[in-house]
Design brief:
about 550 residues, alpha/beta, TIM Barrel, 4 domains, eight-stranded parallel β-barrel, three-stranded antiparallel beta sheet
Length: about 550
């Protein structure tokens, strides 16, 4: 799988860096769906997770190896499955756990890292430069003894002393690293600086031209894509990215932006990738619904307004020639406006066939459940488009975290009186509970009723509503994020002595926006209860 000189490997870290976005934690079923979408998209490397973080993370990485890492999936352009990568700190225990999780993959990779900037050495690692060099040599060699494909990252390379960085990278190559990843961990550099950093590595590190140089940039200054492209122009041949640009703080380099920059400006860069660009928008939607992180309308490539034109001047130009205001066609990224319609008279076979065309393989039980929901929505909406179907599929996706499910909802609101909501839920043991609450509006009242029914104190951080399709009968999607209070006893363990924020997301879809809101809120609460270990107590 050695790339050509004109080929840029796409190393997707949505399931690792992306999941570190506050509230983006995914269930195993959601991780599996994202991994399948990434494999079909055509990425070269999928970072499945951090196996040493927890037994659940290790199991999730192994599951992804078994699902997408053994053989090429239908719809994937390459006859080979993607490389499946596991992250490991420069420690034998981490490396052993990574290898344990990665074994089922046909092409496994261990990615180990150690910081190299003075600020990290002094305050975080409390190690000398010589100690870092010794650790890098030992741990990369140990990883290579377990796995043939090893990648090494000098964390915070963007703020590291170049001369010391060269020595670290030389040590990693001598120990057996086949890929050297150069991260701008805090998004500090500018394109000219980052390009010069990559050029300096290729010039001054012995053996650097015999391995793959990778770039991994963060977007703290809004320069992640620009920096990554500068690194690629300087000679890097792997880009580490996430779908929709999600990630810690301001996020990572956006996969879709980098891929389409190389594709649209191929004459300038002279480079290509193995990504099927028509899968970019569908993959973006899978990640959005799985993480609950909504794509801004003005997001490049995959945003709702990416191919929208409202200005009269722009509309006039588009009517005369599309290239006046569009540098790429929407269908090239999977955003075509073709309406593939199913209605209330459509049968199970037609629905199943359309879902397969969209890349969704459902179990017979899953199809029966979705078909019932499809019929109920079709009675109200009459016709369902591809976007509607996608929303229903993701809304009905099974979740390991469903301690409670919504059974019924009734609201009363208006210009007079008190907005009231009555909510009925069923717990995992089948018992139903009903509660009514008053709020400032129907959604607030419904959320208060859910709180009373399922327990688990929380604070609503974010509430987003958007319609999937046009018209008064559009299916509405709601995404919410909730946080446990700071003084809550049931919290995740500390990391580096700092307590982590526990944020949980939920997503719901329905033609009734209040119903969609309650579904989303209940899913977020379910995740919070399961993560805190309270779900079993609440169901007892």
């Amino acid at each position: 799988m050695t790339p050509q000189p004109d080929y840029v490997r796409i190393f997707d870290t949505t399931l690792r860096d992306g999941e570190q976005s506050p509230g983006a934690t995914m269930t195993s079923a959601e991780k599996r769906e994202v991994a399948v979408a990434l494999a079909r998209l055509g990425v070269d490397v999928i970072v499945a997770g951090f196996p040493a973080a927890s037994p659940d993370d290790l199991a999730a990485v192994r599951m992804i190896c078994e699902r997408v890492g053994r053989e090429s999936l239908p719809g994937r352009a390459s006859p080979e499955p993607p490389i499946v990568c596991g992250l490991a700190r420069a420690a034998k225990g981490d490396i052993d756990r990574a290898w344990e999780a990665l074994r089922p993959a046909k092409h496994p990779r261990i990615h180990t890292f150690l910081a190299t900037s003075e600020i990290h050495l002094k305050y975080k690692l409390r190690m000398t430069r010589e100690e870092v060099l010794l650790r890098v040599g030992e741990m990369v060699a140990y990883a290579r003894s377990r796995c043939e494909d090893v990648e090494f990252s000098p964390e915070d390379a963007g703020r590291s002393d170049p001369e010391f960085l060269y020595r670290v990278l030389d040590t990693a190559i001598r120990a057996g690293a086949m890929t050297l990843n150069i991260p701008d961990t805090v998004g500090y550099t500018t394109p000219d600086e980052f390009g010069a950093l990559i050029a300096g590595i290729l010039e001054h590190v012995p053996g650097a031209r015999g391995v793959v140089i990778s770039v991994h940039c963060h977007d703290d200054l809004g320069l992640a894509t620009a920096n990554s492209l500068a690194g690629i122009r300087a000679g890097a041949r792997q880009a580490e990215v996430t779908v929709n640009g999600i990630g810690e703080r301001a996020g990572n380099t956006s996969l879709e932006e980098l891929v389409m920059a190389l594709e649209t400006r191929r004459a300038k860069f002279g480079l290509r990738t193995g990504v099927d660009t028509t899968q970019l928008v569908p993959t973006s939607r899978v990640v959005m619904t799985s993480t609950g992180i909504v794509v801004p309308p003005n997001k490049a490539i995959v945003g709702a307004n990416a191919f929208a034109h409202e200005s009269g001047i722009h509309q006039d130009g588009m009517l005369k020639h599309e290239e006046t205001y569009e540098i790429m066609r929407p269908e090239t990224v999977g955003a075509n406006a073709t309406e593939l319609v199913l209605g209330k008279h459509s049968g199970r076979a037609a629905l199943s066939a359309r879902l397969r065309e969209l890349g969704h393989e459902l179990t017979p039980e899953g199809l029966d459940k979705l078909f019932a929901r499809f019929k109920a929505v079709a009675e109200r909406k009459k016709q369902l488009t591809v976007a509607d179907l996608e929303a229903l599929v993701h809304d009905e996706a099974p979740s390991e975290a469903e301690a409670f499910v919504l059974v019924g909802l009734q609201v009363a609101c208006g210009t007079s009186g008190m907005p009231t909501a009555t909510v009925r839920v069923a717990s995992a043991d089948g018992k139903e509970r009903t509660h009514a609450a008053v709020g400032t509006g129907p959604v607030d009242a419904a959320f208060k009723a859910v709180d009373a029914l399922v327990g688990g104190e929380s604070r609503l951080l974010e509430f987003n509503v958007h319609s999937v399709t046009e018209g008064i009968d559009a299916i509405g999607q709601v995404s919410v994020r909730v946080e446990e209070p700071i003084d809550r006893e049931l919290r995740s363990p500390t990391r580096d002595g700092v307590r982590e924020r526990r944020i949980f997301s939920g997503h719901g879809a329905d033609t009734d926006i209040v119903v969609a809101s309650v579904k989303a809120y209940l899913k977020a609460k379910n995740r919070m209860l399961v993560a805190s270990g309270a779900a079993e107590k609440e169901c007892a």
